[in-house]
Design a protein that fits this description.
about 40% helix; alpha/beta; Rossmann fold; elongated; 8 helices; 5-stranded parallel β-sheet; binds calcium ion; Arc Repressor Mutant, subunit A
Length: about 220
């Protein structure tokens, strides 16, 4: 899952980025309103964490603009204000959830996971493909009822593949959604992790489609 953090307080932005990366998310950061809007429009993100007070363009205006343009990525707004009126403003302008600073990182993570689940209502809370099942809330994976232990990166890779089970997913798409932009990744990093994953979930479930990418059995 690829997240966008739009926050002009550099220390908070970097702390969020590091924390979310440790959970296996790919995370990009924008430090101004206009940069955030541009990245949200074109970056193919699964969700966005958006500060309200930003240089150049407020979080309210960004989310309203995105909704006007029919971009529906889930938005979690952050603000130092704490009046009910502000919260109503945030939700009215099209944000999906709202947190007041200072917030607990654990709460932020729980809200973000809930947003990612709700973000596309056709997605079930627990993902399944054949006898494989993945519970995003508990970050648990099992095959035929037997728990499979994965690293954060293997988990992120499998989650993306399961959300696209039965479809061919290209290496570029996997790099975009599972690894961070600008991260110094070896060209064969996807193949290496696909190899790790196959050993853990079963080789036959994850097929290589020559010249196109990979397909997880649906
Ligand atoms: Ca701010």
């Amino acid at each position: 899952m690829r997240l966008l953090v739009v926050e002009d307080e550099t220390r908070l932005a970097l702390a969020l980025q590091r924390g979310l990366q440790a959970e296996g998310f790919a995370v990009d950061v924008a430090g101004t309103g206009p940069a955030g809007l541009e990245m949200a429009r074109h970056g193919g993100y699964d969700a966005m964490i958006l500060d309200v007070m930003l240089p150049g363009l407020s979080g309210y205006r960004i989310v309203r603009q995105l909704r006007t343009e029919e971009h529906w990525l889930p938005v979690l707004m952050l603000s130092a204000k704490d009046g009910e009126y502000d919260q109503a403003d945030g939700l009215d302008c099209g944000a999906d959830d709202y947190l007041t600073k200072p917030f607990s990182y654990v709460v932020l993570l729980a809200r973000m996971r809930a947003l990612l689940r709700r973000g596309a209502p056709q997605r079930p809370a627990v993902l399944t493909a054949g006898d494989l099942s993945l519970d995003p809330a508990g970050r648990r994976v099992s095959r035929a009822g037997v728990e499979v232990s994965l690293t954060a990166r293997e988990y992120a890779l499998l989650e993306y593949l399961m959300r696209h089970a039965g479809e061919v997913v290209s290496k570029t798409e996997l790099l975009d959604h599972v690894w961070d932009a600008g991260m110094d990744t070896a060209p064969n990093v996807v193949e290496v992790y696909v190899g790790y994953l196959r050993r853990k979930i079963g080789r036959e479930l994850l097929e290589t489609v020559r010249g196109a990418g990979y397909r997880l059995a649906g």
